[in-house]
From TrEMBL:
CDD domains, alphabetized: Trans_IPPS_HT (cd00685)
GO biological process terms on file: isoprenoid biosynthetic process
Protein name listed in UniProt: Polyprenyl synthetase family protein
Keyword Magnesium: yes
InterPro entries, per database record: Isoprenoid_synthase_dom_sf, Polyprenyl_synt, Polyprenyl_synt_CS
Xref: Gene3D superfamilies: Farnesyl Diphosphate Synthase (1.10.600.10)
GO MF term set: metal ion binding; prenyltransferase activity
Organism name: Cryobacterium psychrophilum
PANTHER family given in the database record: GERANYLGERANYL PYROPHOSPHATE SYNTHASE, SHORT CHAIN ISOPRENYL DIPHOSPHATE SYNTHASE
Source domain of life: Bacteria
Pfam annotation, one family: polyprenyl_synt
Keywords annotated in UniProt: Magnesium, Metal-binding, Transferase
Cofactor: Mg(2+)
Keyword Magnesium: yes
Length: 374
């Protein structure tokens, strides 16, 4: 078993343990609340766990006594040694689940990881039970509350991890980074929905930069940068080390989201778990779209603008839009941006004053998130 695999298992175990302690709390209030925990379990099972891994390797990169090279046979530190980092890593995964629940509501997305999204699960529950009123409204309202509950639980998990940390200054630093991350994600989400509606009021020359700003605050920081810095803060990393991890994490996080934007338009549904072209139906004004508009003919640009965001887009119209975007050269330009950001991140990593073993693991993670197909 690799170190990263062991960490993923520990995080899943910590999440399962936490949810088990919440079962009796909600059941005591009312048996009707059981679906809240059941659906939480469903959304917190599996996944890529990138945020947990970046958090762990941020911690290992600056931890006193951390290995400078890969151990011959890694058995892991004791459970007590890992309590703070598994708590923080688990909190990040629960926070991510909350963000996805809310994001699917905002985007009217019916699927997540190849299964029904939270609001659709609650819709089905409403229909199965034969309750009165709109199943759509019940599904949406219940999913909003589930997302809020998961947000609260992510805080509780983080606090439990911080309580096990003897270094109170490090605990406060990690908490501060977590709080900043929450604000940035919410701001980025607002900028995302704003851009879908206000893009036409901005100068054409600004659209790409505005889309890049959404990427940075909605995804890049909380997917890579924040987990790295939270983990490093837990280990008492120096200002220099945290600055290096930020300088590594931001361009890598941007590469991560640029890849996600490509997958949102061209991804294989059987691999991504989302319908092909889903971002086109949702009207996402991504860097990919901004770059495509720069070189499309006036007629092709008009068709793109008219059809982007139409939830009724069928496979034929999606294929036409995909072809138009491809012919614009935007895909190659985004691929070039991904390569540039990945190179920038790895260049920073090469000179960072952190553990050699952690550097090697972070290099592998960087390539994985930038080149992934799901």
């Amino acid at each position: 078993m690799t170190e990263s695999t062991h960490v993923v298992d520990l995080v899943q175990s910590r999440i399962n343990e936490f949810l088990s302690t919440r079962d009796p709390i909600v059941a005591l209030i009312s048996p009707d609340l059981v679906p809240l925990v059941a659906f939480s379990r469903q959304f917190l099972s599996g996944g890529k766990r990138f945020r947990a891994l970046f958090c762990y390797w941020g911690w290992q990169s600056v931890r006193a006594g951390a290995a400078t090279s890969a151990p011959a046979a890694w058995n892991g530190p004791g459970v007590d040694d890992l309590s703070p980092i598994t708590g923080a890593a688990s909190a990040l995964e629960v926070f991510h689940a909350a963000a996805l629940v809310h994001d699917d509501i905002i985007d009217n997305s019916d699927t997540r990881r190849g299964a029904a999204s939270a609001h659709k699960l609650f819709e089905r529950l409403h229909g199965t039970k034969g309750w009165v009123g709109s199943s759509t409204e019940f599904g949406r309202d219940s999913a909003i509350l589930l997302g809020d509950l998961l947000l609260g639980w992510s805080d509780e998990l983080l606090d439990e991890g911080l309580a096990a940390l003897p270094d109170r200054e490090a605990a406060l630093a990690a908490r501060s980074e977590f709080n900043l991350m929450r604000t940035e994600v919410t701001a980025g989400q607002y900028l995302d929905i704003l851009e879908e509606r206000a893009w036409h009021t901005a100068p054409e020359s600004e659209l790409c930069d505005r889309a890049m700003r959404v990427i940075e605050f909605k995804s890049a920081r909380y997917s890579v940068l924040a987990p790295l810095v939270i983990g490093a803060a837990l280990a008492g990393g120096s200002a220099e080390q945290l600055a290096s991890l930020r300088a590594f994490g931001l361009p890598l996080g941007i590469a991560y989201q640029l890849r996600d934007d490509l997958l949102g338009v061209f991804g294989d549904a059987s691999v991504t778990g989302k319908p092909s072209g889903d971002d086109l139906r949702e009207g996402k004004r991504t860097v990919l779209i901004a770059l495509a508009r720069q070189t499309l003919s006036a007629q092709a640009r008009r068709v793109l603008d008219e059809q982007l965001g139409d939830p009724a887009l069928d496979a034929t119209r999606i294929a036409t839009l995909q072809q138009s975007i491809t012919h614009s050269g935007a895909v190659e330009r985004v691929e070039a941006l991904i390569t540039e950001r990945l190179t920038e991140a790895l260049t920073v990593l090469d000179t960072a004053n952190i553990s050699g073993h952690a550097k090697n693991q972070l290099r592998g993670l960087a390539d994985k998130v930038a080149r992934r197909a799901f």
